[in-house]
Write a structure and sequence with these properties.
By secondary structure, this protein is of the alpha+beta class. It is globular. The longest helix has 7 residues. It contains six helices and five strands; from the N terminus they run H-H-E-E-E-E-H-H-H-H-E. It has one domain. It has a three-stranded mixed sheet with strand order 1-2-5, with no helix packed on it. Strands 3-4 form a two-stranded antiparallel ribbon. Strand 3 and strand 4 form a beta hairpin. The protein binds iron/sulfur cluster (SF4) (2 copies).
């Protein structure tokens, strides 16, 4: 008997309907949300500039957070992504899988859930920007990314 193919969860479910495991699996691992962003402190309407400076906790070699389980204790400002925050964070890249599902879009063909290769995201994520790791002496303004249309 031919087995029925089930439609993948990311094509049928809303963000609200994802279980915790599906929620974690949805992340494409692009790392773009782990890059520092700059905004005028006194004007929350001011533009937000993306930099190529990765969070100090990011493991550039492994291509992932170096301490995901303890990330909120380790890094002030690291926030848990929730449905409400996906709606609120308009700085999330257009490729962000959460943003795409929230907007009713499909995942890109290079998403690791589709390719079954977690490295297929690399040319589309932070590695396309030649990232550097944050440190106490880095000047973020010198690392603003001018032309990245993600
Ligand atoms: S931008 Fe979105 S898809 Fe990319 S790492 Fe962050 S949460 Fe995951
Ligand atoms: S603590 Fe980890 S998940 Fe949070 S911004 Fe830094 S590298 Fe990314």
């Amino acid at each position: 008997m031919k087995q029925h193919e089930t439609t993948p969860f990311w094509e049928t479910k809303t963000l609200e309907a994802l279980n915790p495991q599906e929620w974690e699996m949805l992340c494409d691992g692009c790392g773009l949300c782990c890059l520092n962003r700059l905004q005028d402190e006194e004007d929350d309407q001011a533009p937000i500039y993306l930099t190529r400076v990765a969070c100090q906790c990011y493991d550039l070699e492994a291509g992932q957070c170096s301490d995901y389980a303890n990330r909120f204790e380790k890094v002030e400002g690291c926030m848990r992504l929730t449905v409400e925050r996906v709606a609120e964070y308009d700085w999330l890249p257009e490729t962000c899988a959460y943003r795409r599902i929230y907007e009713g879009k499909s995942l890109p063909a290079w998403h690791p859930l589709i390719t079954k290769d977690r490295h297929s995201v690399r040319p589309h994520g932070m590695y396309a920007l030649n990232p550097v790791l944050d440190n106490d002496f880095i000047d973020l303004e010198e690392h603003i990314v001018e032309d990245f249309d993600h």
